[in-house]
Amino acid sequence: MTKPPKPKPLLQDDKPVRSRPRKPRNPAQPNLPLDPMPDRIEPCLALLKARPPKGDDWVYEVKWDGYRLSVHVEPKGIRILTRGGHDWTDRFPAIKQAALWLPVGTAILDGEAVVLDEQGRSDFGLLQQSLGGRGGKKSSSEAIFMAFDLLYFDGHDLRNSELSMRRHLLEDLVPAGEQGDIRLSEEIEADGDQLLASACEHGLEGIIAKRRDAPYRSGRLGDWLKIKCVQSDSFFIVGYEKSTVARGQIGSLLLAGRKGDNLIYVGSVGTGFKEKDAWVLREMMGSITQKTPPIKYAGRRKNVVWVQPTLIAEIEYRAWTDDGKLRHASYKGLREEQDNTAVHSLDQDVRLMGINAEP
């Protein structure tokens, strides 16, 4: 494949930011007993914060906008699993081939599949197009894998090791600066506020902060933090407003988040649709219409068609209004069912009120 653009470097003067060089492992060190290789590992998830953390305990990376994957290098071959544990090996043939070339017998790499735009920024919409859209079965030859953690390495389970040790081994396996289909997500040591400002100036989604000394713990426990330039979350599509002039005849989509076992209306989105995607979405919604609204709705929109809450849309937005609606929302695309993305939970917004929080 043609090599995708190189990600735009942050905080550069005359040289791009690079991860620190690491010393290779001393072969005279004793070998550790072998650990059984996990069939699957639940991912460590980043907790949203409004501002970067302070202190030397934290290191930073770019926040990638794609599909979270784990790449398993096993004795019988390569497996590529989604966040929800679905096998997508055949959908990423270039990443699979690159994994076969890694100089390791067994390994589990944690990272993100992305497609880069001409400026080297990850673009969720381009990734979806390369896979044929939601429900599509296409294989993506354009996606690359940005590796940011190493959970298993040549017979050793690394989850109880500190991040700094896991990064040491990962950078030996995937050296910084290489431009193949598996690349290293660069570790950046910088002031968090300055790095976030630089990321936003470059048009990136945001940054990730990670504790240097933390083990790898599955779930959203605060060892990893995400700080975004622009908010984005997943919401159910519960209806749409018909239009004779808009793309796909979709004037706007009506959206809902979760609150306990209920769905709560969070507003609408009427921008961000591409012509082809809008017609595909319109056809999908046409097959799941229903007469009654799946939410409590007191709005006055005309020509609303209600749909079963099965389609999950990724929505970019600037903030929340005081009455709990999305502000300046823009449609990014539909999430895959097998991506296992959680729909935004309004329960957690109560305790995080005032900083435009997400779960």
What number of structural domains do the residues give? 3
Strand content: 25-35%
Can you say what the CATH homologous superfamily of the largest domain is? Nucleic acid-binding proteins
Mean pLDDT: 86
Q: Please, what is the oligomeric state?
A: single chain
Order of helices and strands: EEEEHEHEEHEHEEEEEHEEEEEEH
Give the overall silhouette: globular
Largest sheet: 7 strands, antiparallel
Q: At CATH's second level, what is the architecture of the largest domain?
A: Beta Barrel
Number of strands: 19
Helix content: 10-25%
- Which spans of ≥5 residues are poorly predicted at pLDDT below 50? 350-359
What's the tally of helices? Answer: 6
Say what the CATH topology of the largest domain is: OB fold (Dihydrolipoamide Acetyltransferase, E2P)
Radius of gyration from the alpha-carbon trace, in angstroms = 21 Å
Describe what you observe in this structure:
The protein has helices spanning 93-100, 124-130, 163-173, 192-201, 275-286, 347-351; strands at 47-48, 58-62, 67-74, 77-82, 107-114, 144-153, 156-157, 182-184, 206-211, 224-228, 231-242, 250-259, 262-269, 289-290, 304-307, 312-317, 319-320, 326-327, 330-334. It is of the alpha+beta class and 359 residues long. The protein folds into three domains: 45-64 and 185-229, Dna Ligase, domain 1 (2-Layer Sandwich), CATH 3.30.1490.70; 65-184, D-amino Acid Aminotransferase, Chain A, domain 1 (2-Layer Sandwich); 231-351, OB fold (Dihydrolipoamide Acetyltransferase, E2P) (Beta Barrel), CATH 2.40.50.140.
